[in-house]
Amino acid sequence: MPVPAAVRVLVLGGTTEARRLAESLAGDRSVRVTTSLAGRVAAPRLPPGEVRVGGFGGPEGLAAWMREHDVDALVDATHPFAAAMSRNAAEAAALAHVPLLALRRPGWVAQDGDHWHSTGSLAEAAGLLPALGERVFLTTGRMGLAAFAGADLDALWFLVRSVDAPEPPGPARMEVLLDRGPFTLEGERELLRRHRIDVLVTKDSGGDATAPKLTAAREAGIPVVVVRRPPVPEGVPVAATPDEAVEWVRRF
Questions:
Q1: What is the pLDDT of residues 181-235, one digit of tens each?
Q2: What is the pLDDT of residues 132-178, one digit of tens each?
Q3: For strand 73-76 and strand 7-12, is the pairing parallel, antiparallel, or unpaired?
Q4: Within its chain, how far is the Cα of 232 from the centroid?
């Protein structure tokens, strides 16, 4: 009997969940996985299986790549805030007639004792800061720092944590801390204490790797400005865990 062809899966990655999905499927001979990385991080943690780095040239380019490589299923496991890539994935999947799944870890949920301020954008978050504190722990990544570069924020001091060094423009008074999660609760407590942080800004990325900062802020009574994540494109099914995504892939 002829051996069935392996199901070809393209994973739009760059997250822990994408890597775990590739790891779960790596030993399955009935599946061939390619993980695509945007190339924005200088030294990414590479998943098992095939890896490509770089953009596709918009939804049309992604659709063409999937046709050329006979992709059977597409998993959008990009960062919850990679809204443009998620829109491109939805459009490309429709153009190429390829099933699409979004893999999104659940967002964080406020607990008793939290002092959260929910915002819809980095600019809105920046506008809240003068009324909340003077020493800001900014954990929104290296992209979008221009939102915190306004003259009305010049009196504030920022500790900016990111994996790679940010590029200007940025806050007038800032210190850059290059680090990559996961982070520990004890480490986050010490960081808040040492830098005398009195307000935290974060995106609702979800997950455990960077959640200890929220616990440390709660313990210290520090307000947290939380930027809400953009919605998944309409009509795209969502898996909350890599295991759920594996089950979806194995239906093909």
A1: 899 999 999 999 999 999 999 999 999 989 999 999 999 999 999 999 999 999 9
A2: 999 999 999 888 899 999 889 999 999 999 988 998 999 999 999 99
A3: parallel
A4: 13
Q: How far is CA 99 from CA 65, 138, 152, 189, in A?
A: 15, 37, 47, 44
CA–centroid distance for 188 within its chain: 20
Give, to the nearest 10 degrees, the angle between helix 16-26 and helix 242-249: 50
Question: Per-residue confidence at 41, pLDDT binned at 50, 70, 90?
Answer: low
What residues contact residue 125 under an 8 Å CB cut-off, 6+ apart? Answer: 119, 140, 147, 201, 225, 227
Tokens of 229: 């994540």
User: What's the gap between Cα 203 and its chain centre?
Assistant: 9
Phi and psi angles of residue 220, each rounded to the nearest 5 degrees, phi first:
-85, -5
